[in-house]
# Entry
Amino acid sequence: MTVMRDKVVKALVELNIRGDENGLMPGYNVLVNFLPTTFWNLFTERLINAAPADKKEEVLTGLYKAAQECGYHTGYGIINSDEFKSVVMPMVTEGAKDVLRGAYAVFTAWGWAKSGIVQIKEGERMVVRATDYYEQHIKTGGKSSFMFSAVSGAFFDLAYGPEYPNGLGTFIGDQTKGIEAGDEFGEVLVRKK
Amino acid sequence: MPLDSLKEDVFAGSISLTNVSDLIQFIGMSGKTGELVLINEKSDEEGKLYFTEGKLFCVLTGIFAGIEALSKILLWNHGKFFFTRDISSIVRNIDMPLNHAIMEAARLSDESGQASLFDDLDEDDLFSSFDDEPVKQKDLTKKSITAELKVIDENLDFKETVRSLPAGFGLPPLKNSWTASMKSVPAKENSEKKVSSSNLNEIQTINSNGESSLINERSELEMRESTEILSDLLKVPGVDAVVVAGRDGFIIETAGSSNRINVDDLGAAMANTINGIEEMGKELNVNKYQDLFIEYGRAVIMCKPVGDAIAAIISPDASKLGIIRHKASKLFDELKEIF
# Structure
């Protein structure tokens, strides 16, 4: 037995989670904001486009780091949430590898990215692919999926890095393909920093 | 039994003048009922094939029966045969058209690593046999030369050469989407490159000046992108679509199209089914599953584990299953290396 994406997706979409008066959705042990994805895409686009040429690299690194930190702490919350424990953990038989499979199934259920693991070498590297993700609509002309790549790296940190909260940045996610850059799908390669 | 003592209604001859597959195809096409006895003079074995109105009904040799027995008999090239009419078997151990049985037997002998029928036959002839045309009479000398050339080719096979490198060189990495991704990661990674036996991406080479150098991705010469392999699978006659899915049901790659099946649903169903089958294998203690065929009214699905993923081939019917299994086997092996 391993984690079955269809079962995770079916179980999670049935959970009744609503946003509160502050626009936050308490669920999965974290608070998820209630802002439309176009807001975040526009935010990224404007930041990148507004940066002068000599500061562009810094902005890109900043966006990656922000997403990485978000992914690390939010990811920790998710995999320790009651929802994850009740839906995903009973199917986990292959340790961290299955937890990661479960995490991408959760992302798919959220509509955040229809994503999954293509290849994994435990503790060393991983290739993740997404065929539909919100960052694919970013219009910067290049690969701009900071959340997809950084969160993938952060998840690998949680799975194979030093114990939380000391493992942040052990691994990095490099985006190798992106729908926003004209590829058929988005792809991230996670490897040791 | 001496040949000259046989009755007039017995058709007899020497195997070395023809080959077994041609002989049984001839009997099949003639629509005969009877018993074909073959005697392998080299090994002193006897094989019996029973036909009912041209349909191969039962095959026996030594301790083997059915397709397994046929796979042994097809490789015989010296000895005698005699066909006696109107003798039939009450046991049936072949339940497929004659040409498919030959293909299955050839595949079996090929997989078991014995000298293979495929060595002796042109692929075109094998395909043509699926269209119910007889395999052409081959020139035996040509066959033996072809077989010898194949052996030489195998010895020169670059893959084998690379695999035979000392352990320190490690197995080559694969030029697939994974390594393609690695290559697209810019120089920062290359700057950390170390001369290490554990670094699978490196190989030491000696150029024409005798200088030693390291190159990355030696596997480029031998490994292909997964999309290329999937395209090759699509070229196998009878294959409508190919799907590679993760163990969790995530669709990794697809090629071709099948209006019979929704690919996303197939990924999820495959993962669930394989999980169940693996559980069963574990409980029965019969090792990991190797193959899964499911025949439906409108489609046949063949699943095979490829590394950490599952590959599935969708075919409209089972008529070409033998050739699909044979032709796909090596391509699945390539996929295994990738996933």
The first strand of chain A starts at residue 24 and ends at 27. Chain A has one domain: 5-192. The radius of gyration of chain A is 16 Å.
